[in-house]
Amino acid sequence: MADFIQIRRGEHLPARIAGQIGKEISEGRIAPGEKLPTEHLLSKTFGVSRSVVREAIAQLRNEGLVETRQGVGAFATDVERRHSIRIEQDNLTDRASFRSLFQLRLPLEIEAAGLAALHHTVEDLTKLDETLGRMSGADKWTDQGIVADLAFHRQVAAATQNEYYLMFLGFVAERIHLAIHAARETAVLEQIVEITIAEHVAIRDAIASGDPVKARNAMRSHLIGAAQRIDLELEIF
């Protein structure tokens, strides 16, 4: 098994775990085709919950570093099958780089919301409601609230029924967690969490209405608010 290091609690857990596992894969210590340790073993090794491990594996899957097989587990992908796009999390500590990624997110997520309004299924709405339940539940003040927030955005992408939206937005969303952390650190936590939940409810309801214009506007309002909460100036048209 790779020599993983237990994650410090102050770090964003899924991203840091994904970074450690990804490094082991990229540098060949986990060979192409090799099965990763089980969720149970990884959670014990890193000292985190299994839900955090699942989020880390989801990030690695979005990056093309692993593939998951139902009922079997996660495996490192062959080199030739890996995606060419990869952004190291530490690079986004540079504000200009982070701003550029957030600017890219804006049109992609707005359009995804519109498409989700047109193409969502009953199952998609159920999954959106499940993530909202986790966002507004007892763990909403903790890192699990952030995990649920990211899962909501991935589910909006999935509701487009366009796998490329899910691929690209899944990749971007895992890095935008920095925005959520920054917003929570610079505002009254109770206010920022409740505002964020309300914005996500508005997006969900707009998608459920089947009105793509309403859904785009709701997502646009949320993303503009998210940028303002971290004092991020974007070019918005």
Content-based structural category: mainly alpha
Distance between the termini: 50 Å
> What is the total domain count?
2
Report on the biggest sheet. 2 strands, antiparallel
Question: How is the CATH topology of the largest domain named?
Answer: Four Helix Bundle (Hemerythrin (Met), subunit A)
- Oligomeric organization of the protein chains: single chain
Model description:
This protein is mostly helical and 237 residues long. It folds into two domains: 13-81, Arc Repressor Mutant, subunit A, CATH 1.10.10.10; 91-229, GntR ligand-binding domain-like (Four Helix Bundle (Hemerythrin (Met), subunit A)). 64% of the residues lie in helices and 3% in strands. It is built from nine helices and two strands. The chain has helices at 13-26, 39-46, 50-62, 95-119, 122-135, 143-158, 163-185, 189-209, 212-229; strands at 66-69, 73-76. It has a two-stranded antiparallel sheet. It is globular.
Layout: helices, strands, pairs:
Elements (H helix, E strand, L loop, with lengths): L12 H14 L12 H8 L3 H13 L3 E4 L3 E4 L18 H25 L2 H14 L7 H16 L4 H23 L3 H21 L2 H18 L8
Antiparallel strand pairs: 1-2
Short description:
With 237 residues, this protein is mainly alpha-helical.
Keywords:
single chain, 237 residues, mainly alpha, Arc Repressor Mutant, subunit A, Four Helix Bundle (Hemerythrin (Met), subunit A), 2 domains, two-stranded antiparallel ribbon, 9 helices, 2 strands, globular
